Amino acid sequence: MVTFIYILVFAGLILLLSFLDMLVYKEPFIQSLLALYSFDIGTRRTIVAVPAILGLFICVLTDYRLHKQKKNNKSSPKKVNV
C-alpha cells in the first residue's frame, strides 16, 4: 500500500508539473511531459531522480516487511491465558 501511494503521489506531481509547464511555456502537454523525463548525467535532474528512485525502493522494502510481519502474525497460534 505504501508503494501504491508513493507511485500515485509521484505521478500526480509529474502530471501537475507538466500541466504547469504547458501553460507557462505554451507548448503541447506531451512535449512538456517528455521534457521532464530527459535524464542527462551531471544535471540537476539527476540529483532529483536518484532520491526519487531510492524512495521507491524504500517503499517496496517497507511493503515487503509489512506483508511479512502480517503473514507471521497470522501463522503464529494465539496463546490462551487460563
Helices and strands, with pairings:
Elements lengths: L1 H24 L3 H8 L7 H32 L7
Helix pairs in contact: 1-2, 1-3
For the biggest sheet, the summary is: none
Low-confidence stretches: none
Strand content: under 5%
Number of helices: 3
Helix proportion: over 70%
- Cα radius of gyration in angstroms: 20 Å
Alpha carbon gap, first and last residue = 38 Å
Count every beta strand, where a strand is a DSSP E run of 2 or more residues: 0
Shape: elongated
The helix-and-strand class reads mainly alpha
**Secondary-structure element order, N to C:** HHH
When the domains are counted, the total is 1
Residue-averaged pLDDT, rounded? 84
Keywords: Membrane, Transmembrane, Transmembrane helix
Transmembrane segments: 5-25, 45-64
Describe the structure concisely for a colleague.
The chain has 82 residues and is mainly α. Helix content is 78%, strand content 0%. The mean pLDDT is 84.
Keywords for this entry:
82 residues, mainly alpha, elongated, transmembrane, membrane, transmembrane helix
Describe the structure.
Keywords: Membrane, Transmembrane, Transmembrane helix. The chain crosses the membrane at residues 5-25, 45-64. The chain has 82 residues and is mostly helical. The chain has one domain (2-72). The chain is built from three helices and no strands. The protein has helices at 2-25, 29-36, 44-75. α1 crosses α2 (29-36) and α1 (2-25) packs antiparallel against α3 (44-75). The longest helix has 32 residues, at 44-75.
